[in-house]
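Possible regression after last week's pipeline update?

I re-ran a chain I had predicted before the update to compare outputs. Posting the input and the new output here so someone can diff against the archived version. Not blocking, just want to make sure nothing changed silently.
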Amino acid sequence: MMKIADAQIVIKSPREIELMRAAGRVVHRVLDELEAMICPGVTTAELDSRAAELIAEAGGTALFKGVRQQQAKIPFPACICASVNEQVVHGIPDDRPLKPGEIVSVDCGVRLKGYCGDAARTFAVGTPAPKIQRLLDVTRAALELAIEEIAPGRRWSQIARKMQKWIEQHGFGVVREFVGHGIGQQMHEELKVPNYYDRGQGYVDFELRAGMTLAIEPMVTAGRPEVVLADQTGWPVVTKDGSWAAHFEHSVAVTEDGADVLTDGR
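New output (post-update):
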């Protein structure tokens, strides 16, 4: 049975939302600069190094570096997650040069003056295959659809259902194991923000309220939606069938009129 969550919702003040927007500006700048760097031959380690420089220059700290989780044997060792091709999330930057036609999802989180910003984009390295370009376009559009549908009083499940329908009608898969989340003074706050709808056991629905801040992040596969851990480090998550994946994310505040994107650089 679908559960309804209300007590865990954290409402932010206008001041807190502006502090989150300031952190979001840093995230936006990092992603813009890394996009300009991405080309055949560049390594994700080089992207991570530049991200570290930009975050430090802004007076922020990288949210991901040093994070521990139960299944991981090591703390996350980098400032960004850089997930290449079949890697869905939590890719560890390394020295392998990117190749023409590949894709890389860059997820960046920053804490600035006690508040967090979190966003992700998937970039093509040169010109991808037509199906992969459609994967990027559909995933980005799923995020945009969700933002456009946000309004106080709506249930998140109404929006998640539309996201899932949009993605699946284009022949792609919606990852279930990883979803969006609340965000604020902590990178992960309640509630979980799924990109799919399921009335089954464990699906938690909630009502959107002005002042809520959410990280919305569709993760979409070119094949089946199932994912597994790539190796014994416990970090990179890959598609089980080896199909490529895309990931787009924004941190968003719910307003009386709809949604206010906090990681769009404004």
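Follow-up from reviewer: compared with the archived run. The mean pLDDT is 95. Marking as no regression found.
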